[in-house]
Amino acid sequence: DHRPMPPVEVLDMRTQHHPLHPETRMALADLRRSAGKAIVLLNRRGWSNFLSCRSCAKVWGCPDCDVALVLHRSEGVISCHHCGHRERVPACCDACGSGSVARHGLGTERLEHELVAALGGADYPIFRLDADVAAARGRANAVLARFDRAAAGVLIGTQMVAKGHDFDGVGLGVVLDADATLRFPDFRAEERTFALVAQLAGRAGRGGSSGRVLVQTLAPTARSIIAAARHDSIGFLEGELRRREALRYPPYGELVRIVCSSLREELALQAARELRERLTLSDAQILGPAPLFRLRGRERAQIVIKAADRGAAVAAVTAALAQPLHREASVSVDVDPQ
Predict the structure, then answer these.
(1) What DSSP character marks residue 75?
(2) Cα dihedral: 150, 154, 155, 159 (round 10)
(3) Is the peptide bond before 6 cis (omega within 30 degrees of 0)?
(4) How far, in Å, CA of 183 to CA of 181, rounded?
(5) Which of the four pLDDT bands, split at 50, 70 and 90, describes residue 301?
(6) What is the largest CA-CA distance in the chain?
(7) Strand, coil or helix: 17
(8) SS3 letters for 98-143?
(9) 70 touches 79 (CB < 8 A)
(10) Interatomic CA distance for residues 290 and 263, integer angstroms
(11) For residue 208, is pLDDT > 60?
């Protein structure tokens, strides 16, 4: 409707100990007093990221994946977000017997609890939308409809609250831990971060109301966050394309990812090494083999091919896989992995 995009303020969290910046707390309190609406994005579900023993430093991990178990307090479980393993929340440490179990990090479930305590009431509802809520058929649409009908309130959730929604009267958008996606080993990390902030910024200030966006981050100088705060899509795109061209990432190169897995680590690496020796490609960079974290009980190793010609890369992989590998190892090939 030819309205300007809302102003975006980047909040430096490097010296903060509370999950909400003082500016964010003040903005939410002001919105509560004026009976306004806000959307708060935290791209991490659950109550806490992981549990640890304060005495022996044990971290509760998944028995089938090399990841920490996430606390879901309302269900009384800690669970793996990769394979679905679940177990009861420990009352004490099974390694040393200590009853001092610490909870680390913030997820949407805990954020909902804290905002209900600080802001909520019959006249100011707090809504949550994440994969846990959306698991029940129709729940996601029901939450969005209730937030749309409400005269005031806060919608918190993962990235599903940032994309494509058109709510009138949302005066405040907040992104928590905006740099989390930058810490993933993914060539699209900058793009994902920019997109997440830009999408949430587009939810505020629609209809006849003005909007404001606050972005909390430990990386306030990251180019993707600065560009998103300036609504500078063209500048970000130009810089990102230059970087990808220099590194031969898509769209200036083709990627093929080969993952070898086995119940035994040495066999996964052996299969990947054998495949690497069979690959013959000109004008291509072959990275690896490199170990990956264990997933669903299987040890993994990967090879990544960065090639100029997709057809030649696929043909080379096909030829390398023509001969069988160890019968206890399996192989998956992903062309143009995202």
Answers:
(1) G
(2) 150
(3) no
(4) 5
(5) very high
(6) 70
(7) coil
(8) CCCEEEECCCHHHHHHHHHHHCCECCECEEEECHHHHCCCCHHHHH
(9) yes
(10) 16
(11) no
The pairing of strands 8-12 and 50-53 is unpaired
**Cα separation, 36 vs 124, whole angstroms:** 9
Amino acid at 325: L
Tokens of 261: 């897995």
Cis status, amide bond into 250, omega within 30 of 0: no
Q: What angle do CA 230, 228, 236 make, to 5 degrees?
A: 95
Identity of the amino acid at 247: L
| pLDDT given for residue 223 in this prediction | 95
Residue 38: how many other CB atoms lie within 10 Å: 27
CA 65/CA 83 separation, integer angstroms = 7
Residue with tokens 């190892």: 329
Phi and psi, residue 288, nearest 5°: 105, -175
Phi, psi of 16 (to 5 degrees): -95, 145
Distance from C-alpha of 188 to C-alpha of 144, rounded to nearest angstrom? 29
